Structures are given as structure tokens and as C-alpha cells.
Inverse folding.
């Protein structure tokens, strides 16, 4: 239940179109639903503007599918990250309208109820190997009501490629830079644009990249101002933050 559906419910009661017992039944699991293995925060969409997001890693398929079903039953859009196709198939038996983003590993419902963001968020990757993390960010942004543009494979090993997309970068309200190896692309992009840059280090790289730690440290030590860094491979976290920025001017 989000702010819009809650207002609709209250309006229906005030106008006499909905009896109080029926309204109470719809609010029976609001704000928290106890499931034994989980407590679902159905109030989060009212507080934060988007429902609780399901992290599927670490949960059994049955647990994740049950949480997805309960969230879907309350209406509104839905994201279940770090999923796999088998889990999606199980969850879709319970929620037939559920969709699947294979590259981003996200099961989702996009019911178009998220407020539209003010501007455009551009997701940039240093290489093609960074695409799975970028895809997680792209799908998260789209379901959360943002216009998204992807720019792929413009890493510093061929820095002249950035010149071809410079105008597209400058039009962005927020830029998410996804890069592994030494993570230098975030600093370069931040030196070109006026808006905030959110850097996502990825675990892509050879031995001394230490599973993304080298990129993480490189981004944290950026010489460019205005770079914010999220954790390794955390495309979802970067997209969530970018979406909040992109919705700042909305009431």
C-alpha cells in the first residue's frame, strides 16, 4: 500500500463508498505482516515512496516466493533482487503477472504507480563485463519511476569513447558509473558533468583487483568532487539513491 492507495481508501470511507469493516480488513496487515520467518513492512511505501524490496539471496526459494506473493497482494510495484530463474518460476505460479529481468537478476512488477522522476538518470559502464550490475541498476530505476539511459563500454582504456557521449552525460540529472578493474571511470565522468555521480565498483578484474576492492578503494579516493560510492556490485543501492535524488523536486 502506497500513499496514493491509502488516500484513496480514506477518501472512500469519508464519502461513504466503503464501510469501515471493509477498510479495516484491507488494513489488517498494515503496517507490518508477521510471517514467522519474516516481518513485511507494508508501511514503507508510505514512508519512503516505494515498497519494501526483496533481497532473494540468503533466503530459500519458498521464503522469497512467499514474501513476493504477500507484497504483490497489497498492490503497487515490486522488486525482488538477486533472484534466479527457478525462483522466478516458483513465484510466478503465485503471482502470474510477475516479470523477469534475466540480465539484472530481478523479478518485478511495474504497475506504473511510482511517481515519475524529474529528470533522466544515465547508467554508464566501463566495460561489457559490468553489464549485469548496470542492468540491476537500470531495472530498479525504471520500476521506481525514472527515465533511464544506458551508455555501455566507455572505460578509460579507450577514453576517447567518452567524447562521443559527452553531451548525453551532461543532460543527466544523476549519473551512475559502473566499473571494475581500477575504477577510474567514475573520476573522469565526475570531472565532465555538473550533477551528482554515484560510483559502483564491480568485482570484474584480474587477481590484484581483489574481487572489486581495488575499484572500491580507487573510487573512494577519487580526485573529482561530487562522487558518492556504494558497495561492490551494488547496482540496486546506487539506483535507489539516484532515484531519490531524481524525485527531490516532487511534492
Amino acid at each position: 500500500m502506497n500513499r496514493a492507495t491509502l488516500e484513496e481508501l480514506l477518501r472512500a470511507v469519508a464519502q461513504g463508498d466503503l464501510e469501515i469493516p471493509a477498510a479495516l480488513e484491507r488494513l489488517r496487515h498494515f503496517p507490518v505482516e508477521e510471517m514467522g520467518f519474516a516481518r513485511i513492512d507494508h508501511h514503507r511505501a508510505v514512508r519512503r515512496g516505494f515498497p519494501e524490496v526483496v533481497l532473494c539471496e540468503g533466503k530459500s526459494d519458498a521464503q522469497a516466493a512467499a514474501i513476493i506473493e504477500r507484497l504483490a497482494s497489497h498492490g503497487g510495484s515490486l522488486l525482488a533482487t538477486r533472484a534466479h530463474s527457478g525462483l522466478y518460476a516458483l513465484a510466478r505460479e503465485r503471482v502470474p503477472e510477475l516479470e523477469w529481468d534475466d540480465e539484472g537478476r530481478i523479478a518485478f512488477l511495474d504497475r506504473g504507480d511510482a511517481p515519475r522522476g524529474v529528470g533522466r538518470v544515465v547508467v554508464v559502464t566501463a566495460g561489457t563485463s559490468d553489464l549485469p550490475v548496470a542492468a540491476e541498476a537500470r531495472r530498479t530505476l525504471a520500476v521506481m519511476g525514472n527515465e533511464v539511459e544506458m551508455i555501455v563500454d566507455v572505460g578509460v582504456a579507450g577514453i576517447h569513447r567518452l567524447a562521443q557521449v559527452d553531451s548525453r552525460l551532461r543532460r543527466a540529472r544523476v549519473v551512475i558509473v559502473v566499473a571494475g578493474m581500477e575504477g577510474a571511470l567514475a573520476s573522469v565522468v565526475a570531472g565532465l558533468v555538473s550533477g551528482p555521480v554515484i560510483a559502483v565498483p564491480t568485482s570484474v578484474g584480474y587477481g590484484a583487483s581483489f574481487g572489486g576492492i581495488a575499484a572500491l578503494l580507487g573510487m573512494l579516493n577519487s580526485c573529482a568532487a561530487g562522487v558518492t560510492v556504494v558497495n561492490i556490485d551494488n547496482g540496486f543501492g546506487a539506483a535507489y539513491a539516484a532515484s531519490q535524488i531524481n524525485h527531490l523536486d516532487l511534492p
Observations:
- The chain has a mean pLDDT of 90.
- The chain has two domains: 3-109, 120-246.
